[in-house]
Amino acid sequence: MSTLIVYSTKYGTTEKCAKKLAEKITGKMELFKLNANATPDLSPYDTIILGGSMYIGQIQKEMKDFYTKNLNILRGKTIGLFACGMRENEEAKIQLEFAYPKELSDIAITQECFGGEFLLEKMNFFEKFIVKNVSKIKQSQSKIINENIDSFAYKINHHE
User: What residue spans define the domains of the chain?
Assistant: First the structure.
């Protein structure tokens, strides 16, 4: 089995989660960070995992652009979907439901929210102001859910 994790990240949390996940996936494993200058070749991979961070209820534009452009290829692969964000429980599940198109959600063998982080030291003034006032936090915090990463990896590794 060959697996590719394609992810988009703004402050590095999704990259951190993608790397943790990659350590738990068996078989040939590669990571690809989306950017404006490069697109991965999906043809050599059996399994494609997509991951992105959530901002204002939406997955990052780079991820939307990627899955929209590659939807036909992705339909022919084993798919896993994850999102990183600070919403919890039902709110996180609803956010994940709307992060990816129904065509991918319907064929995904696993979907999960990996939690998130507020990294104030990486935010600009405006972002800090919004986060502090809306979320009522005063310092950076991490709420990455390692159990969800473990469960996701298990489902990918044991998919027939």
Answer: 2-157
The domain made up of 2-157 has a fold known as Rossmann fold (3.40.50)
* Cβ neighbours for 90, distance < 8 A, ≥ 6 positions apart: none
Alpha helices, H only, the chain = 13-24, 61-69, 71-74, 89-99, 102-107, 125-135, 146-157
Provide the residue type at 33 as one letter.
Answer: K
Q: Are 79 and 50 in contact (CB under 8 A)?
A: yes
String of b and e for 143-159 (b: at least 16 CB within 10 Å)?
Answer: eebeebbeebbeebeee
pLDDT of res. 120: 66
Residue 19 CA to its chain's centroid (Å):
11
Q: Tell the residue number behind the tokens 């780079």, with chain if given.
A: 62
Give the pLDDT band of residue 129 (cuts 50, 70, 90). low
